[in-house]
Amino acid sequence: MKIKQFSNKNLTLLLVILLLELLFLRIVIPNFVSFHNIISLCRQSTITAILAIGMGLVLISGGIDLSVGAIVALLGMAAAILITDFHLPVAVMTLIIISGGILTGLVNGTICSKIKIHPFIITTALSVIYRGAANILNSGMPVYGISDSLLSFDKKTFIGIPMPLLVLFGCILAGTYILRKTYLGKYIYAIGLDEKTAGYSGINPGRMKMLVYSLSGMFYGIAAILLLSRVGSAQPTAAKAIELDLLAAAAIGGIGFRGGRGHILNIVIGVVVIEILGDILIVFNVGEYYRSIFKGLVLLAALYMDAAVRKKRSKDS
Amino acid sequence: MKELLRIRDLSTDRKNMAPLNRFRLQVFSSEIVGIIGLNGSGKNTLAPVLSGEELIESGQIFYNGRIIETEGRRLSRLKLEKQGIFLIRPGNRLIRNLNISENMSISLKRRILDLFRNPGHREKLVELTLKEFFPGLNPDTMASSLPVSVHWMIGILKAYIEGARLVFLDRILEQCSEKERNEILSFIRILREKGCSFVITYNKIAPFLSFFDRLGVVRNGELAGIVHKSDYDPVRLAALVVGKKFADKFSFKKEGEAGSGSSLLQVSGILDLKLQSAEILGLYDPFQERSSELIDLLSGDSPDKGTQVVVNGLAVELSEDYNVIQSGIGIVSEKIFDKLFFKDLTAGQNLSISAAKRTAYKNGYIPTSAEHYLEEKYPVEIGIPDEFLRLPARLLDKDYQFILALHMRILSGAKIIILENPVRMADLLSRELIYLSIESVRKKGAGIIFISTDISELIGFCDRILQYDRIGSI
Predict the structure, then answer these.
(1) How many CA atoms lie within 13 A of B23 on its CB side?
(2) Separation CA A145–CA B205 (nearest Å)
(3) Which of A179-183, A295-299, B427-431, B453-457 is predicted least confidently?
(4) Fewest beta carbons within 10 Å, which of A53, A159, B12, B315?
C-alpha cells in the first residue's frame, strides 16, 4: 500500500475518533462544543502538537527522542535568561533559541549516528544532561519577568485565529512539505524503512539522522518559545514526561515505532485526540495519577493496534 | 540400452522458480546425464518437480515404459522412490547426530512393525553394502564428522540400497572441492556399472564435461539440445547455452571496441582489474572467493586498507563514511540482495527514492510530475508489469526485483554496475529485460562487471573475461 493511501485511511479513522469524542462531550456537557471552545482546545494542544511534529520526523526516520521535554526546558530557561538578563529583543532571542534547538538536535543526531546503541538509551542519557543544564542556568529556580511583547504573542489573534495556532499551521505545512515534497523527506522514510537498504541506495543514514534530529530540534525551539509565551515564566522542570503524550499521539496517529511510515497531520490530530481524552477524564473528575495510568494504557493499546495492523497487512499481502 | 525415463513436454508454472517450458529429456539405463544451462534457465526446477514442490501444468513422464500421472498435479516423492527414482539435493542430508549405519538403516524398510524397532538397529544389508563400497569406513562414525564427499556418497549409497535405479543429483557438487568432486564422480561411475542411472545438475558442469555420457542444455525452460561426449565443442556448447538469439541481437563482443574507452574503475590489491567505459567485463570465479571479496570491499562491508580503488581517475577512500553509490558504483549481488530495495514499498516508490536527489529542484523540491512518472510509468518502461505496480516490492518475482534493484542503481547515478549472477533468478520472460537493461546501461557509457560461476554465460556476453582461482588471476 502506498504511504499516501495509508495516511489517508488512518486520517479518516482519526477524524472519526475525534468526532466521536466531541459528540460524547456534547452529550455530557452540552455547552462544551462551541467554536470558542474548539479554538481554545486547539490552542491548548499547540505546543504538544509542534513537539509531536519534531518527534514524528524522528520516529519516521526510525529513531526516537526521549530528551524532548528536557530540551524544551533547557531552551525555555535559556530564552527567559536572554530576555530578562540580556534584554535581547524577542526576534533575536527567537533566532538564538531556534538555532539552539537545531544545535541540540544536531548533538542528539550525531551521537545517535556515531554510537551504535539504540537512540532510546542515548536520548534518555542526554535528557538527564539537558535537564541538569536547565537547572544550572538559574540554580534550579524558575525565571520570571518575561517581557510583555513575548507574553502578548500568545494572546494575539489574526482574523480570529490565535497566533500560536497559526504557528502550528506553519509547522504542519513545513513538516508535510519536507516529508512529501522533498528528497529529504523521501530519505527520511527510506532510512526509517531500512537503514542498510538506504545505505545501499546511496543515502548516508548517519548524515540523514543528524539532519532529522536537527530539524526536530528546530521544532522543539519553536515550542519552547511558545511555552514561555503562554506560561510567562521558564521552569527547569517544564515539559516533564511530555514524551509519553508525544509517543501516544504518534502511536494513535499511525506513525508506529518501527519507522518508515506516518504523516505529520495524523500525529497532530493524534495530539488533539489525546488532549480531548484528557479533558473527558477531567470532566469525570479522574485524578492526575489515574490520568497518567490511563495515558499509559492508551499508549499500550495504540501500540498493540499498530502491531496487529502490521501483522494483518503482512498476512494479507 | 533400455529407456528408463522419458519426460515429454513438461511445463511448470512460474510462481516460484524459473519454469520448465515443454521440457523433454530421455534417460537410458546405466547412463550419466548432465544438465547444464544459464542461471535461471530452469535446470534447477527439475528437482522441485520431482520432490513434489512444483506443480506440473502439462506434460507426461514415462518411467520404465509406464506413464506417471502428472498433469495439473504435484508428483509424490515417496511414490517415485518406490518406483526407483531418487532425488538427492542439498536439502536432504544425512541426520547429523546418527551414525552412518543408523542413517542408512533408518529408512530401509517401511513396515508397521518397524515403528517399534530401534531405528539404529544395524541391518545386515547395510553392513554388507558398506563393506563392499567403503571397506575402510567405520559404520559407527557420526554423520556430522564425515567429510563432504563421504557424506554425499553415503547419501547416494543409501538411495542405492533402497532400490534406486535413477538418481537425480541436484547441485550437491557445488559445495565440494575438486578432490571431493572427483571422489563422488568415481563412486557414481561404480554405481553406474551396477545398473544405476544418474542425472546431475550443476552450475559449473562444463569443466568436467567428459564425465557425462550425454549433456542436456536447458535454455528458457526447454531442452535446447543434447551434446554427446564425443561431440564436445566449447564454442558450439556456448552458443547452445546462451542461444544465438541474444548473441546476435546485442552488440556484445564487438571487435576492437573493448578497451577503447576511458578507464572507469581500477582496483589493485585483492585483485587487479581495470574496467573501461562502455565495457562488459566478465569475472569467472568458480570458487566465488575473489568476487566475494571484491563485492565486500566495494560495498563497504569490509574495508581493506591495502586495496586501492580508483573511480574515474579519483582514488576512493574506503573509510567508514564510504558509500558505494555515492562513489558511482552500483552493486547488484545475491549476497546483499535483500538490502537492495525497500521491501515494503512499491517498485515505483523505490525508484522514486533512488532518483529523488537527481529529480529535486532547488530546496530539494521534487515536482509532482517527476514523482508520478517515476512511480507510475518508469516501472512499466523497465518491464515491471502494470498489475504489480501497487504491490510491495517483496511480493514481486525475483527477476522483477532484480530489474528493480538494477534500475535503482542506474537512477542513483551509478556509472559502474557490478552484477553478480544477474540471471540466476530470472525466468525466460524477464531474462531478455535484464540483458536489455544491461545493454542500455552500457550504451550510456557505463562499465559493467559481470560476475558469474558459469563460464559459458560469460563467453556469450562479455567483452573480456578475467578468470580467478583461489590464488589470483589466471
Answers:
(1) 28
(2) 86
(3) B427-431
(4) A159
Mean pLDDT, residues A238-249 taken together: 88
The secondary structure of residue A138, as a DSSP letter, is T
**Is the C-alpha dihedral spanning A227, A233, A234, A239 positive or negative?**
negative
Q: Which residues in chain B touch residue A316, judged by CB atoms under 8 angstroms apart?
A: none
Rg, C-alpha atoms of chain B: 25
The DSSP secondary-structure symbol of B317 reads P
> What is the reported pLDDT for B108?
62
A92 pLDDT tier (thresholds 50, 70, 90): very high
Q: B395 at the A interface (CB within 8 A)?
A: yes
What residues of chain A have any CB closer than 8 angstroms to a CB in chain B? 1-3, 181-184, 186-187, 189-190, 193-194, 196-204, 206, 260, 317
Cβ count near B402 (within 10 Å):
29
Residue in chain B lying closest to A186 (CA): B353
* Candidate ranges A91-105, B136-150, B232-246, B300-314; pick with highest mean pLDDT: A91-105
Which of B398, B451, B463 lies closest to B421 in space, CA to CA? B451
Q: Does ipTM surpass 0.85 in this model? A: no
In the block, cell 542503481 appears at B409
Least confident of A185-194, B260-269, B280-289: B260-269
pLDDT digits (tens, 9 = 90+) for B323-342: 677 778 888 887 788 788 88
pLDDT tier at B431, thresholds 50, 70, 90: low
Residues of A in contact with B390 (CB under 8 A): 1-2
At residue B118, the pLDDT reads 54
Predicted confidence at residue A174, as pLDDT, reads 93
- In this predicted model, what pLDDT tens digit does every residue of A160-195 receive, in sequence order? 889 999 999 999 999 999 988 888 888 898 888 888
Asked whether the beta carbons of residue B344 and residue A189 sit closer than 8 angstroms, the reply is no
CA B257 to chain centre: 30
Q: What is the pLDDT of residue A1?
A: 43
Q: Is the pLDDT of residue B293 over 60?
A: yes
Q: Is B342 on the interface with A (CB under 8 A)?
A: yes
Is this structure's pTM higher than 0.95?
no
Pick from B354, B363, B365: CB nearest A201: B354
Contact in structure between B354 and B411 (CB atoms under 8 Å): yes
Pair B328, B312: CB distance under 8 Å: yes
Read off the C-alpha cell for B407.
Answer: 534500475
Under 8 Å between Cβ of A214 and A65: no
Confidence band (pLDDT; 50, 70, 90) for B258?
very low
End-to-end CA distance of chain B: 42
B440 at the A interface (CB within 8 A)? no
B295, B299, B323: best to mutate for the A interface, most A CBs within 10 A: B323
Instruction: Characterize the bridge pairing of strands B263-268 and A157-158.
Output: unpaired
Q: Does B331 touch chain A (CB under 8 A)?
A: yes
Residue carrying C-alpha cell 535581547: A88
**Cβ separation A204–B326 shorter than 8 A:** yes
Bridge partners (DSSP) listed for residue A134: none
Contact between chains at B353 and A197 (C-beta distance less than 8 A): no
CB A197 within 8 A of CB B408: no
Residue of chain A nearest B356, judged by CA positions: A183
Residues in chain A: 317
Q: In what order do the strands lie in the sheet with B23-28?
A: B23-28, B3-12, B56-63, B66-68
What count of CB pairs under 8 Å joins A to B?
80
Q: Do B364 and A184 touch (CB under 8 A)?
A: yes
3-state SS, residue A25? helix
**What is the pairing mode between strands B85-88 and B166-170?**
parallel
Residue in chain A lying closest to B300 (CA): A200
Q: Tell me which residues of chain B, numbers 241 to 300, contact chain A at a CB-CB cutoff of 8 Å.
A: 299-300
